[in-house]
Amino acid sequence: MPELPEVETVVRGLSRHIVGQKIKQVKILSARSTLGFTPAKRQGLRGASIKNITRRGKGIIVSLAKQPATARSAGGSDLSLLIHLKMTGQLIYIPHSRHAELVSASKTKILKQVRGDKLEKGRLNYGHPDKNFIETMPSRHTRVWFELSKGNLYFNDQRRFGWVKLTPTAEVPNDKFFSNLGMEPFDKNFTPAFLYSAIQRRPKSNIKTIILDQSLVTGIGNIYSDEALFYAGIKPTRLGKSITKADTTKLVSAIKKVLEKGIKYMGTSVNTHRTPEGAMGQMQNYLVAYDRKDLPCRKRCGSTIKKIRLNGRGTHYCPICQK
DNA sequence: TGCCCCCTGCAG
DNA sequence: CTGCAGGGGGCA
């Protein structure tokens, strides 16, 4: 699912719901979705409390504070949970207070709406006719199940590309994934001058590939790169050496604009993205390029959006408005 | 710096 | 059935 706006939506939602709660137990339902859950670290996890939740690029950092008793006896550093949702990851939080209600609501809806052959017990609403429908958790795609003091947090991931890593907080800066990330798009240093000089270093790459490079600027993925290039009026296939300073100025504002818009609408739910409450984002209703193959250009230029393949990624653009 | 791959499910 | 999907790691 997730690019910066989707991850930011998840982080903000979780921050509201689970900061301050204690971790009572962690159940790993899919070992390959986890890293670093050694017996020693798992011991340190029990009773730890959730201090804060932050985003870096498309990655999530859940910082924990040790349980006082463990801190006294075991020593060692505080732990962090590092989470990447990759293509289909979800983090769904269901407070104890809402669980029974959801189970009962889901039974009613199952009887009313779901074709028998489509129903699989405990499945999230992926593919369900009612897009706001949540079945009971854990679902068949739940990979890690966190029992917290006031509710349950489920890491769901249909394709199992995502991961949950357990790492000492002091080691997070050295993490393979996080240490390779470039500039945050909302950092004050993400300027046209910065992007322009980076683009100059890659004269033979196309501009879409350049802005997808997470080691340069982090958080832009396939949806928001197409969106930003549309607003900037730049064809995704343009080579780095052809990009002017004026293009770069437009592109930097377009990137910030589309990411802000994505956050405002709580992300794009063309597929599996959900907020921690299980609701869909709404940004799919405001896309101008991505997922609009053969639909009219929203600038009313009279053309339709074309879809091509660029470095193996589906790429959408307006042949008239983007030069 | 591009390609294949990881995996699962859906649309055509 | 084939191809494709919000990502990114490893490999020429």
Cα end-to-end separation: 29 Å
Q: What number of structural domains do the residues give?
A: 2
Strand order of the largest sheet: 2-9-5-4-3
Provide the CATH architecture of the largest domain.
Answer: Alpha-Beta Barrel
The proportion of residues forming helix, as a percent range, comes to 25-40%
Shape, please?
A: globular
Beta fraction of the residues? Answer: 15-25%
Determine and state the CATH class of the largest domain: Alpha Beta
Rg calc: 21 Å
Q: Structural class of the helices, strands and pairings?
A: alpha+beta
CATH-defined superfamily of the largest domain: MutM-like, N-terminal
What do you see in this structure?
Its cofactor is Zn(2+). One of its GO terms (biological process) is base-excision repair. GO terms for molecular function: 8-oxo-7,8-dihydroguanine DNA N-glycosylase activity; class I DNA-(apurinic or apyrimidinic site) endonuclease activity; damaged DNA binding; zinc ion binding. The chain has 323 residues and is α+β, with helices and mostly antiparallel strands. It folds into two domains: 4-180, Alpha-Beta Barrel (N-terminal domain of MutM-like DNA repair proteins); 192-317, Orthogonal Bundle (Helicase, Ruva Protein, domain 3), CATH 1.10.8. Helices cover 29% and strands 20% of the residues. It has eight helices and eleven strands. It has helices at residues 4-18, 39-45, 68-74, 96-113, 192-200, 207-212, 222-232, 245-264; strands at residues 23-28, 34-35, 49-56, 59-65, 79-84, 89-95, 142-148, 151-157, 163-168, 306-310, 313-317. The two termini are 29 Å apart.
